[in-house]
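Section 5.1 Outputs to date
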Amino acid sequence: MSEGGGGLTMIYSLRFPFHQTLGSLRGAAFAAAAVTLGAAGSMVFAAPPTTTQMLQFRPRQTEVQVSTPKPEEESSCRVDLVKGTGKASGWVLRDSSGIMLRRFFDTNGDNKTDTWSFFRDGVEVYREIDTNNNGKPDQYRWLNSGGLKWGVDADEDLKIDSWLAISPEEVSHELLRAIITKDAARFSSLLLNESDLKTLELPEVQARTIREKANQAAAKFQSTLA
């Protein structure tokens, strides 16, 4: 485990035989819930927000690259009101060329932002989601050129607890970061968990085997940190 290769092999063997199945099942479930189109934080503007106000909200996860105007360029940016279905609405920040930089949206019409979208070169690459409308992020998505990851932060502490979607390449990166930072929780988030096993509806014998292997992998990683 000290070199990371064993951990990567273990993660691949536990997660990726079921990767497409998990993605399909979860994708269907989340597509049915409109609130999952959202992002992070409670934010209400009595008047249109300023460019400075919108830029104050930065990605909460690390290693996110988004387009941000220089201070001297902020005055040429504009904020537009955008309407959605029903009472849904939000604000869009554009640069002087009309290219989208940020989109903060209220998907359910309760006058609180539940979707924060961040753009790079006019394309959405990252989104923060408040699915339970408590003003705190509980999901994070990387999109388009930003990646494929879709993480869940169940306890809302800004750390990913599990992944709804993640590519093999992104697993490799997450594992490397877990090793470098000695982050056992980050490593464990890559393993199949109880929610995954329930979603897959595996036979109990197979589920038990996977559970045991996942526990062993987590324990082995933890032992390398001692």
